Amino acid sequence: MKSSRVIAIVLGLVVAGCASARRSEPIAGPLPEVSREVESGRLLFQRNCNACHVHGEAGLGPAINDKPLPSFMIRMQVRNGLGAMPSFPEKDLSAEDLDRIVAYLETLRDHG
Amino acid sequence: MLHPPSRRARGLGTALLIAASLPAAGCFSLRPSQGGGETTLEGDPPIGPDAIALPDGYRIDRIASDLTFPTAIVFDDAGTAYVIESGYSYGEVWTVPRLLRLEEDGSLAEVARGGDNGPWTGATWGNGHFYVAEGGRKQGGKILRISRDGKMEALVVGIPSKGDHAVNGPVLGADGFLYFTVGTATNSGVVGADNVAFGWVDDDPDFHDVPCEDLILNGVNFITPNPLAADKAEVETGAFVPFGTRTEKGQKIPGAVPCSGSVLKMKPEPGAPVELVAWGFRNPFGIAFAPDGKLFVTDNAYDDRGTRPVYGAGDLLWAVRPGTWYGWPDFHGARMLDYGDYYDPPGRNAPEMLLAAHPNVPPEPTAILAVHSSTNGFDFSTNEEFGFVGQAFLAQFGDMAPAVGKVLAPVGYKVVRMDLETGLSEDFAVNRGETNGPASWLRVPGLERPVEARFDREGKALYVVDFGVLLQKEEKSLPQPGTGCVWRITRDPRALPGPLALSPRGVAP
Asked: What is the ipTM metric for this complex?
């Protein structure tokens, strides 16, 4: 991969991060009908992530619903933590549950 | 044929991973705090509902304004609304606590006024009287009984409520008892420099948390400068003791009732004994019975401040089980504060356990809400005409960053609804804008700091008490008298979805 393409991708991600992250129901409308996996991910997100990223918006932590991060990077960050974010070990959040959270986050990203 | 990636390609991949993670990681330590109070007020605050978003089919109206630090609304048997003005705000601004009748034309008539022992934090109606929680910043907390013509007497006095948090509530139970709550004196059990800075130690050098039952300490002590000493010499302070007092491993702290961080109850008569319901809360500000009779409280969780800071602890909604300890100062929900790195403040170690043994393992909370959202007064929908029957509607006062810790964007400043069966919460009334925030931050007319959400007697309208503007200049709170108001949210078939949804949904047609 050429350096220019890498830079372009990174810049794209950063610019994408500037879009509005407002996703709550009164502003973006209710979530459309979703799969059971996404619905389950929504519950898991609420329990594990929402306190710092309400509806994926910024709060204690940064917004995470407006950035097209690949799912493997989301998993990596959740498992390892980064900066002020804690790490979520598998005993607290199984691989299957993490998949569900990622599926919900991707749905949230497209909503709004 | 596949080839292993070259070193250069691997390096680029790693750089990409790190760089692409930065927008999500947000470089927390490098970014300034962006709390909703960290703004300035230029001219008068914007007034009106124009920026408030609601679900389709609802409308919001501002029905009373120019209030100073309002904290609660209560309805008598006839359905007449009364508003409480606190008489005190963080920032050490003292006014007069008042009970005001809200007339139909939006004017206010004074029913009763208190002294200098605010804040008045909540009220309920029953047995032909108002019952008011007097926070007790100067004399300790009280529960007051006020007649319709303004005669006032204390049912109980001397509740330990000096320090960070006050006496809150009350609500009347079906059993005839009056239930109320007491917040803790400190953030996480230790009187520290933060409490000195707030002025609490100057006011009462002996103030500290009082447990409801005997506790045995681990003997953890914290060394801090003593701002009160001329030479700023360091002092050691342990848990549940006054500032500058050292504790030992195995030391017993005697319990007593009334106590800090508790839900208490009493018969609504002067001098009736106060009984313990549950304890181990931090600041159980909101208290309400669900339609099925279960008691719930909202609990403002730990801050990232003071001698023993705790990071990332979301506010909690608890179902209250009598006789249970709810974890403060060593747990958040059912999780110990030294578990993993969940509660480590950036660049610091996990909080040390203060107690040698815990009365019980705390139950799981009903819900975890946003960190620093200050989720306060709440009520349950009971009327199909309003909708969302059985769900809780919770007022979120909003963060007080940076005094409570840094945030990357304003948190709270809205009303959320909570499905207790699933634990899912959703915004119900929230300001529009590129980010969340109070009206003064967004510079739009809308919600500022909702502190109470309560339905009228019929359950047809949700009233939201808005404390008004409270700015934060670094650690100092700057409340703005006269900026509080009351909102009323109703179902309005005229506020239909469709092309009109392009207009602000909060505006009355």
From this structure: 0.89
